[in-house]
Amino acid sequence: MTRVLVVDDEPQILRALRINLLARHFEVAVADGGGAALREAADWHPDLVVLDLGLPDIDGIDVIHGLRGWTKVPIIVLSGRAGNQDKVEALDAGADDYVTKPFNIDELLARIRAVTRRTTVHEAELARVEVGAHVVDLAGKTISGGVRLTPTEWQLLEILLRNPGKLISQRQLLTEVWGAAYVRETHYLRQYMAQIRRKLEPDPARPVHLLTEPGMGYRFQP
Q1: Which of 28, 31, 77, 162 is packed most tightly, with the most Cβ within 10 A?
Q2: What is the DSSP letter of 111?
Q3: Where are the membrane-spanning stretches (predicted)?
């Protein structure tokens, strides 16, 4: 069974998530503070952490940093902080996804399923990825249908495809593709993502696989 650690200082949210996750055959532990969360994670080794940012003892961002000091466990932030800067800060700290309160339980469960699926995908399975009607061979750097990408387009696409379902922040994409000096050049991403969509999406104006999360980053939805 997949182990999920839920961290929130609101008892009703802890109770609701525990009930819903147990009903879907997850193993669940709960913590109502950052210190308790870090101790529970170290003792229990969860497969996924659902984390509120507004904790009474340690800020959720610091909990993310604490976890990332020793584990790559996927972290989904569940927070009432709706500002883009809060979301970007959490993603840059190492969170894998961000869901804003009040939340739809079905959406959160879909994000949890996506993250847990991603952690079980092996490198060999990622070598060939379907994007709509196209098959992208990441090892051979080829795309079915004779589609050709520039080296920069390949770099962007590969980061997204190797992290299916994960929200990749603008800062991470800009740093990995262009370098740390370009973290504010978000127009680069808009331009190149538009080019990639024109080549791979059936309707580039209404993408279904290469998605924009406004003000935060991009996500590949299989």
Answers
A1: 77
A2: H
A3: none
CB 7 within 8 A of CB 37: yes
Q: What is the pTM of this model?
A: 0.67
pLDDT in tens, 115-125: 877 666 554 55
CA distances from 48 to 6, 99, 137 (A): 9, 14, 29
pLDDT tens-digit profile of 126-146?
Answer: 678 899 899 999 888 899 999
> Can you name the residues that pair with 134 across neighbouring β-strands?
131
Render pLDDT for 17-70 as a digit per residue (tens, 0 to 9).
999 999 999 999 999 999 999 999 989 999 999 999 999 999 999 999 999 888
Question: What is the C-alpha to C-alpha distance for residues 156 and 116, in angstroms, rounded to an integer?
Answer: 23
> How far, in Å, CA of 96 to CA of 10, rounded?
22
**What is the longest distance spanned by two Cα atoms in the chain?**
55
Nearest to 167 by CA among 111, 126, 124, 123: 111
| Phi-psi map region of 189: left, alpha, beta (phi>0 left; psi -120 to 50 alpha) | alpha
- Nearest Cα neighbor of 151 from 218, 196, 181 is 196
- Residue 32's identity, in one-letter code, is D
Q: What are phi and psi of 32, to 5 degrees?
A: -105, 15
